Please model this.
Amino acid sequence: MLGWRQIWSQSSHGSHSRVEDKRILLIIGGGIAAYKCLELIRRLRERGASVRVVMTAAAQHFVTPLSVSALTNEPVFTDLFNLDDEREIGHIRLSRDADLILVAPATADLIAKMANGLANDLASSVLLASDKPPLIAPAMNPRMWLNPATQRNVRVLKADGARFIGPESGEMAERDEAGPGRLAEVPVLIEAIEEVSDARRLATTVGAAGPLHGLHVVVTSGPTHEPIDPVRYIANRSSGKQGHAIAAATAAAGARVTLITGPVNLPDPTGAETIKVETAEEMLAATERALPADIAVFCAAVADWRIAEQGTQKIKKKKGEPPPALKLVANPDILKTIAGRKKGRPDLVIGFAAETENVLQHARKKLNSKGCDWIVANDVSAESGVMGGDHNRVHLIRKDGHESWKQQSKEDVATALVEEMAREVESSKTKAAGSRSARVKLGKS
Ligand code: C5P
Model:
């Protein structure tokens, strides 16, 4: 049987185009960058994909349905209430017929509609009727992109499985405006479409069940809060983005996932059972309760210490007295405890190491001292922007070597880690089958 990786590399580097015969539905939103879609359609068709297009009313102010239709060789769909279109294809079929839906340029308005499940025009209805998460390529004014409302909508869509391409940063069409908000360039859009096509082909080749089907994965995520008294606590800056992305990716790969998370501002990932805790002691207890597991990933930024004696009442300021001295005691090390279990240790225990210097050296030490199988190490120095940011540059450290991965989104780190897990599962199955047949040969079975 082919490993997940092998199928991936065959599909990625085969001689035929990675989007050949793919039916791509392109939803064009209203923005100046809509003109780039004409080039995109040409390049996709050259690669053997068929492209159907839905245009919003605003999009038609920037490019005409006539030019789009000339390039796709298909009618362009613009109106939810067009009787001919509804009779012949209908918005539900338009959505279901597509192998992949790309929204480009995705305006702030379209993103808000998608995040909230609105369906008051053809584009939003098609998106709501889809059973696959869309690819979204935003383009808008940087202030609109950075607006907390847009960022909130983006987080919701990501948690629902949508994949974002860009926006890129740079000069905007408006004078004196620069920042994040440019539509990704056509080659970048094509690369993302190809990657998603590969991943979906992979899922169908491996089986809809996914490469981690039948396995239980436990993931810890987020910070812990250690109370000082009923209103104050010690915390850290972990956002939980990486751990939540790992829970979502392992669930998407077919595993039963238990996510144990400290307090975060993130929606629960789709497909995982999410258990919410506050303190390190609660996280350890929840992790032990969640066992047995095949794989455990310890991504949480657990507080090293807690207050020795928590106040049962709010500690009062007292005039003329020095501030209270907080006595700390060590928290349990959840990773070390689980990795060191004699009985019921998960087969694969993965820890994280957040380091600010000598990342590889410190992480390797941690691999040994914690007794885990792999360490995912990252540079969390202030300059790296990893803490709370959307990107991560990590090194995967195993007992016999390490790999350094490129800087990528936390979702992509999660997907790459799932690939490695799937490969490990595959190779341990092969080893187990090999040793069974060796025992048979030696007459030991
Ligand atoms: O010792 P340090 O905090 O650097 O180790 C990081 C790794 O150990 C992470 O995988 C983290 O989730 C885990 N850890 C833990 N319990 C602790 C401290 C760290 O599980 N008390």
Remarks:
- Confidence is low (pLDDT under 50) at residues 1-15.
